[in-house]
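Propose amino acids for all 145 sites.
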C-alpha cells in the first residue's frame, strides 16, 4: 500500500463538476493499493498518516500530527501510484490490486483514519475525479508498506 501525503491548506475532489468533498487545513492522501496488500497494511498506514508530524508547532517546527493540529483528511484512491514506467513509455499497472480487492481496503483505510479521530472525506472509488490540492509548504511524502 502506498500513500502520497500532502500537507494542504485546502483540498477538494469533484466528479462531473459536482464537488464531492472539500477540506480545509490538513492532508490530502492519494492512496494506492498493491496486489499483495491486506488489512494489516491499511491499519498500519492509517496510524502512520494520523500521527505523522508534518504540521508546525508554535516554534515553527514540523512537530505536530494531523490529530494534534485538528486538521482534516481527504482520501483519494489512486491506482496509478503503482504504475511501473521502467520499460517503454506506457505505464504498467500489473502490481496494482484489482478493484474488488482495492476498494474494500481503501474503505478500511478510511475507517481506520476515522477511528483515530481524524475527520475524513473521500472521493469515489474508480471515478474520473478532479482533485484540487493547495499544497502547504510544499510538504509531500511517499509512505509505503
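Proposal:
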Amino acid at each position: 500500500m502506498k500513500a502520497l501525503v500532502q500537507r494542504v491548506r485546502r483540498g477538494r475532489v469533484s466528479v462531473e463538476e459536482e464537488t464531492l468533498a472539500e477540506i480545509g487545513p490538513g492532508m490530502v492522501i492519494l492512496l494506492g493499493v498493491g496486489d499483495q496488500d491486506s488489512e494489516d497494511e491499511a491499519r498500519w498506514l492509517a496510524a502512520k498518516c494520523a500521527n505523522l508530524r508534518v504540521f508546525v508547532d508554535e516554534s515553527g517546527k514540523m512537530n505536530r500530527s494531523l490529530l494534534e493540529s485538528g486538521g482534516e483528511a481527504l482520501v483519494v484512491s489512486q491506482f496509478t501510484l503503482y504504475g511501473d514506467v521502467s520499460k517503454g513509455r506506457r505505464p504498467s499497472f500489473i502490481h496494482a490490486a484489482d478493484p474488488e480487492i482495492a476498494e474494500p481496503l481503501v474503505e478500511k483505510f478510511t475507517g481506520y483514519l476515522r477511528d483515530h479521530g481524524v475527520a475524513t472525506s473521500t472521493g469515489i472509488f474508480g471515478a474520473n475525479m478532479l482533485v484540487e490540492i493547495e499544497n502547504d509548504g510544499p510538504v509531500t511524502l511517499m509512505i509505503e508498506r
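The mean pLDDT is 97. The longest helix spans residues 99-115.
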